[in-house]
Amino acid sequence: MDEAKLNDFMGKLVSDMGAAAMLANIIVGEELGLYRAMADSQPVSPEALAGKTGCNARLLREWLSAHAASGYMEHQDGQFRLPEEQALALAIEDSPVYVAGGAVVVASLFHDKDKLVAAMRGNGALAWGDHHPCMFSGTERFFRPGYRAHLVAEWLPALEGVVPKLTAGAKVADVGCGHGASTVIMAQAFPDSRFEGFDCHAPSIDTATQRAQEAGVDERAHFAQFTAKDYPGRDYDLICYFDCLHDMGDPVGAARHALQALKPDGSVLLVEPFANDTLDQNMTPVGRLFYAASTFICTPNSLSQEVGLGLGAQAGEGRLREVFKQAGFSRFRRATETPFNLILEARP
Ligand SMILES: C[S@@+](CC[C@H](N)C(=O)[O-])C[C@H]1O[C@@H](n2cnc3c(N)ncnc32)[C@H](O)[C@@H]1O
């Protein structure tokens, strides 16, 4: 037994337990508006923050101290400050690096622990719709900032000839659209195009419909409950999958359906979690997060559907290319990437 290695590992575990406990504190801070109340990055005492937010000053002192000990806030002379950079991640929902939604996704893993234990002991299946409701709202809030930052500015322009079609007026399917964050963002950017969002989870379709109404794009963005293998239409210019193809039981069947639903010169936009092709190459903080989430979410959802391929969130470009090749697509390439996403393009 190497004592130094043991000490290192215990240090890592204590740090990870602290991180997990901090995620619960982040959710509380978010819900109570504490970060928003500190978003001006001015030093504040627990009592002053209590005055601003109506919360208990003694509990706030503990919450603020946890943030100071975590490096999330600065502390001096009894006052706490949320630096501008931390405010971007925790207080400003419109910022491209806002991550508080991710804490809500992680929370749902704890809520769903017993269901995963049952899946592990059984056939591995845990369907998306059987998660705690905070999975759905957390996913929307976790992914939306990235879509808002990159989808129109970088991802669509990285595809061959797609932006001119969208500008002129194109027909688009957003498959596995969830709460429709990506659909609404595209509909806002391209007023002459029509968008159809499809998802097999009925409550998500209801929320997506509501989001389109709130954004005033419901005339050109419609949502309906269909699976990735049975949605209608044969004349799409663009079919998109945002963080969902690897969740499907039969991604080859889904891609085959897309091939016959696309126009001959249409395109597929495949947005997937960033991953390299092997576990050894994915031993990174992002890989760790995605494998851990995929154990609870993506892989058991795939195992709950027909075929049950179980690609997992770290499928990587090589396996995804194989899916589209098997489905009959002739071209497949990496269009661009971010630290969190691979942006892939498939053409008939
Ligand atoms: C991780 S969520 C992503 C949702 C959304 N695209 C987003 O980026 O916020 C995966 C979505 O895929 C949907 N889904 C999973 N399997 C599906 C299938 N076979 N057909 C249609 N939708 C599916 C789920 O219901 C869920 O809404």
Key descriptive features of the protein:
348 residues, alpha/beta, 2 domains, Arc Repressor Mutant, subunit A, Rossmann fold, 51% helix, 9 strands, binds S-adenosylmethionine
At a glance:
The chain is an alpha/beta fold and 348 residues long. It has helices spanning 3-32, 34-37, 46-53, 57-70, 84-90, 100-111, 113-121, 134-155, 162-168, 181-189, 202-214, 251-261, 285-296, 298-303, 316-327, and strands at 74-76, 79-81, 171-175, 194-199, 221-225, 236-242, 262-273, 331-337, 341-347.
Chain-wise SSE layout:
Elements lengths: L2 H30 L1 H4 L8 H8 L3 H14 L3 E3 L2 E3 L2 H7 L9 H12 L1 H9 L12 H22 L6 H7 L2 E5 L5 H9 L4 E6 L2 H13 L6 E5 L10 E7 L8 H11 E12 L11 H12 L1 H6 L12 H12 L3 E7 L3 E7 L1
Parallel strand pairs: 3-4, 3-6, 4-5, 6-7
Antiparallel strand pairs: 1-2, 7-9, 8-9
Helix pairs in contact: 1-4, 1-6, 3-4, 6-8, 8-10, 12-15
Bound molecules: S-adenosylmethionine.
